[in-house]
Amino acid sequence: MSSRLKAGLLATALCALPLLSSAEARSALDERVDATLAKLDRAQLEALIVTHIPEMMQNPAAAGDAQHAAAWSPAMPEHGIPAITETDGTIGVGARIQDSRYESTAYPAALASAASWNPALLEALGRSVGRDARDRGFNILLSGGTNLTRDPRGGRNFEYLGEDPLLVGRLAGFYARGAQSNHILATIKHFALNDYETGRTQYDVSIPREAAMESDLLAFNIALRIGKPGAVMCAYNMVWGAYSCESKPLLTDILRRQWHYPGYVMSDWGAVHSTEKSAEAGLNQESGAEIDTAIGLGGTGMLQDTPLSAETTSRIAAAIKNGTLFAQAFYAPGQLASVVSDESLRAMARPILYGLFATGAEQPIEKKPVDRAEGYKTALEAAQQGIVLLRNEKSALPLSKSIRSIAVIGGHADKGVISGGGSPTVLPFGGNAIPQKGEQIMSQQVWDPSAPLTYMRRLAPQAAISFTEETDLPKAEQAAKSADAVVLFIAQWSTEGRDRATLSLTDAQNKLIAAIARANPNVTVVLETEGPVLMPWLDQVRAVVQAWYPGSAGGEAIAQILFGDVNPSGHLPLSFPLSENDLPRPALPVAPPLTEGRPASFQIAYDEGADVGYRWFARTDRKVLFPFGHGLSYTRFTYDHFVVKAERAPSASVTIRNDGDRDGCDVVQLYAEGQGIGRRLVGWQRVSVPAHQSRDVTIPVDLQTIARFSQSDNRWHVTPGSYQLRVAHSAAEEGLTSAILLKGTTIAGTEPRSE
């Protein structure tokens, strides 16, 4: 054991500050953690810093009724340490197999919820998902995606919250806060700069430290301060030449020393490549150690049901002994003695206990049926607030309930709504609306059984509403010709593990939309996609509704929006580009083949730096299809009386007026630019305004969003001088502007946020 490793691990423990704000509670928690830690022997420490995939263990029955958990470790009841039972929870309690016992509420995709721009809603979602998970017997929630959308083709974008660090950070923080109100430990991930799925275990991100701090890392910083999650999950990719889970700059210098984060760092499943480097960098817990076995030996991390050979087992033992593979304590406790000392293991285990005790995750769990009714209520509210009305020419929407006929076409709208794939997959109540072969569900397309057609017929019982599959083009064209209006559903599946090759829909889908638009002038396109798509047919249709992956209540929410029972209020949390050629990297990265031993790495340069999304498009003067922040309503909002105050806590005030005949909800967005800073979101407020009334809104300016990070002193500095504040309906709108004179300010970037 090197003295450098020992010192690094001790520093990790000593610089940690508590999750709790009360000094008295903090002291009591510290004492409890230290007292518990002192009683643990070597085997218990090793058990605490490694979790296992029960289905891949040599003895799955050891996990009891947690055999389908994402990961598990045994309880130590004599020390008040619970069994660690983890579940994916990005859009609800994750399912690994098709079994009605594991059905749960599927909430809208994170990106769909982000379109609400509503921190209170994200807190409610976290509270609801956390409740479901605890009722199912879990105490660790593996959700809280905080990576920025640097490329709209990213396969996991639906798990994240958009392209702006202030928006993403606040929403992720409130989600974690809500989840942990259930005495369940929340995780934010994937730390850090894990913005592609292509070659995700191989690529090495190149970006200036300052630019990273002002973009992706700022989102994590804000989320940690608001939500105080018990754990951070390090990512698959490399950053600045080292794997994320072996990155001392990320895990020790930034997370611990700069941000004073007191919780623990867990690895992603298959993200650990060595013992000494990971431990020295600040990793506390190896997750799903069985997958790391495969990757550490040159595998892909997907062992599935293949048993380990005697030769492989021998190589694992040798790798453990020489320190090139992490703990793997499930093989033989104590094998790490020559690599990591008892003292260092205690330093690694301390933040784990801290996270468990600070969040109350160690409290006994009373398993009970998931509250389906309450979950549906929250899912419906989230879907309603997240659906974005992108286009509405000639007031095509809302549809009249007295309309004679509507042709509903495509997207399996008669059966359900599509969901994203991979580890966040939820088996919804009622099962997959479109059954698929195989017991494993994480690699399947899952359709939540919430059929828009059913709810449309309920809301307009007098209308003749037909349905035609998109595969029968002649029949669909005939249905469109004879109907008063057409609602055309387009579904596109995205999943963890691969990026979308293009932003285009399929040729068949684009041809279908064009053909239906020729057959009927009154066409509404409903997009069930993870994110942006190209729209060569946009000018040929009257209305476009972005429904995302809307979850178990998605069909009802879509119908309510279409008929005006709900006034749309969603706003885009990311930009819709005109072309892949307008992106910082027009072509997706190409990963070299995996090889025996460590995978061959390759570099991705984030040359856009901190200018992600709308900032990039503004910097390069590129037009977009729909801008960040865009969202239409069935009423009209106008702004006036814009006043800024350059006090110690600068702010802007504006009067928002609803000039229409419907009550509505708007997102008032505040942007700033100047002193070398391009346009940046510095605040917003979601506000409800009754018809023909007005509301006064005051928005504080978040100074950290326009400050520049300095690596020389690890602080944020607001350059003194004149800035232009802009209140607008989107990042691309001119809106109302006013100059504000700011004094030079230094920000530590560690102050707690109580928003």
UniProtKB/TrEMBL annotation:
The keyword Signal applies. Gene3D superfamilies: Glycoside hydrolase family 3 C-terminal domain (3.40.50.1700), Glycoside hydrolase, family 3, N-terminal domain (3.20.20.300), Immunoglobulins (2.60.40.10). Residues 666-731 form the Fibronectin type III-like domain. It comes from the Bacteria. It holds the Pfam family Glyco_hydro_3_C. One of its GO terms (molecular function) is hydrolase activity. The keyword Hydrolase applies. Keywords: Hydrolase, Signal. Residues 1-27 form the signal peptide. Belongs to the glycosyl hydrolase 3 family. This is Glycoside hydrolase family 3 C-terminal domain-containing protein. It comes from Asaia spathodeae.
